[in-house]
């Protein structure tokens, strides 16, 4: 449960970080939009016609009242072009400049050059235009305009005060044709205004976070309840398994008493076999209880086992479950593997399950071959049968708990679908691997590989 809570906490943290990253990117995108908007507003304010109309051409020579006429060269005759005298602006050479282009801009920039040389720059007019643009596009923003030289010296300012604890955006724009001066706009935008534009995104992000957190919480509750039910079921199963020991011990005592009084030599082996089977069943119960102890690692008790005898004994015991079954059994041991070091109880349970399935899912005269082989430090036990085989569709689910194979055209066999599931688990506990291959109508091969 602690691991489940940890994983859920990591998932929640990842969710919150992703939402924070998403909102941060949206915030930065909004800042970029404001930056572009301020840049356009400043450019518009500098290039606006109001700068020319404020006296740039007539302030220093009001009596002459000069007149500005702009005509396209296509509208003028060669004689008319020659008749005009005065300053000439060559657009081709001006294209190398980084200033904004256009005839009106060139005249404005030329006029600004004159004012920067002879007079002060009309910051009041620029401030008035820029204020209208900013208030129209970015309400509640404060700003300051500065006229600076190329050496970053402030020449003039509109003396406005901006709030430094807000989002600050600084834009610079060169003025004049020689680019010796530039206008710097420092704009402070209230963070709440930016978040107001992101209001719907914040609402969506908040709702998504709440929904996902609720889903995670619901999953935790489901996992907790499921775990609680499983623990209750395990406890009930362990209690039932433990309670089996008492009647088994009683049955063993009864068989032992009968065996002492029995005089018929034909019955004595049967009684001894019954006692041995009860002892094995008691040992299996002990191993199951030991495996499922809460908060205790699985202990594998390895001993030296005579493998051929273990296989033959498992075959004899399974044959008693199918008294009318006709089959052939063969042990193939070409390398003469005899003693191995493993858990005898778990290995015997695996062999019993696989041999029982080989007889259960086959017709009479089936052949069962157990082949032993060794490779490096591992040995394999392959149990092959010529039975019904397993359909391809069923092979993907084979070994799942409570899953049972239904062979085509064959009767449903009794069972609970726990045999192969138990084999897979037991082999895994012994640090081994379990594989199989099967062809429907031909038979199957199950292979246990152990260290």
UniProtKB/TrEMBL annotation:
One of its GO terms (molecular function) is phosphorelay sensor kinase activity. GO terms for biological process: osmosensory signaling via phosphorelay pathway. It is an enzyme of class 2 (transferase). The keyword Nuclease does not apply. The chain crosses the membrane at residues 198-220. The keyword Transport does not apply. It catalyses: ATP + protein L-histidine = ADP + protein N-phospho-L-histidine. Keywords: ATP-binding, Kinase, Membrane, Nucleotide-binding, Transferase, Transmembrane, Transmembrane helix, Two-component regulatory system. SMART domains: HATPase_c (SM00387). CDD domains: HATPase. It comes from the Bacteria. Residues 239-451 form the Histidine kinase domain. Its EC number is 2.7.13.3. PANTHER family: SENSOR HISTIDINE KINASE GLRK, TWO-COMPONENT HISTIDINE KINASE. This is histidine kinase. It comes from Parabacteroides johnsonii CL02T12C29.
